Amino acid sequence: MRNLLTGASIALLFGSTAFAAIQEEAVTYKDGDTVMKGFIVYDDASTARRPGVIVVHEWWGITKHVRDEAHKFAGQGYTAFVADMYGDGKTADNPKDAGALSGAVRKDPAAMLSRFSAAKDALSKHATVEASKIGASGYCFGGSVVLDAARAGVDLKGVAAFHAGLGAAATPAAAGKVKAKILVLNGEADPFIKPESIDAFKKEMTAASVDYRYISYPGAVHAFTNPEATEKGKQFNLPLAYHPEADKQAKAEATKFFGSVF
């Protein structure tokens, strides 16, 4: 009888916690008249409000990689929002289409900022989120987006940009305007990131008195955090490759960064 009771107690215990897990929910939201399709990811084991992180995709659009990154943030205790920067959840499976989609957004900085802000608003309204504590993480194209959001003075605690282009799509950072702390994590061997662009970025941040840090990882090329990058690089003859050690180190830096800004 005692064994039966113990087994029943264990069943009740596990039954009460079986549904506590990382949740990913599709979210449809709007930027003006444009329908956006993103994802919100959070751990429902807690009912407490927590900081939120906007996760901005590479030029391919929302892929498994960026959704996996959102799950990692949720596992660290944040609510992550995978932003749709193209509208209607559009994705690309080749560089020509990816370049067209990302280029259209970068060429219209006002629309880019509006789409980022729409994602921020949607995240801020989620029941799990403490709206005063929002950050952002971006990858490649998405890294450039979050840097420009910081430059524009969007109310963010911090932004982490992975293998990101450094030039401003619109106005460079200005003293007193940037609210976010900035962390840039790039590959030292990335041919898309020219030495002169790094120098210009550092001078821009210093002149604007931005609290920033720039880290280069030796041997890492573009898209080094994406496990699918090596295959894509071979498929399209592009300098893309996953670098497990650089990925590990960069993610550890980002974890410390967000822990400090929140």
User: Biggest sheet, strands in spatial order?
Assistant: 1-2-4-3-5-6-7-8
Total number of beta strands: 8
Helix content: 40-55%
Instruction: Please tally the helical runs, counting DSSP H or I stretches of 4 or more residues.
Output: 8
* SSE pattern: HEEEHEHHEHEEHEHH
Topology summary:
Blueprint: H1 2-17, E1 22-31, E2 34-43, E3 50-56, H2 64-75, E4 79-83, H3 95-106, H4 109-124, E5 129-139, H5 141-151, E6 158-162, E7 181-187, H6 195-207, E8 212-217, H7 229-236, H8 244-261
Parallel strand pairs: 3-4, 3-5, 5-6, 6-7, 7-8
Antiparallel strand pairs: 1-2, 2-4
3D architecture notes:
The chain is 40% helix and 23% strand. It is built from eight helices and eight strands. An eight-stranded mixed β-sheet has the order 1-2-4-3-5-6-7-8, sandwiched between helices. Helix 4 packs across helix 5. The protein is globular and about 45 Å long. Residues 1-18 have low confidence and may be disordered.
Which key features would you list for this structure?
single chain, 262 residues, alpha/beta, Rossmann fold, eight-stranded mixed β-sheet, 8 strands, globular
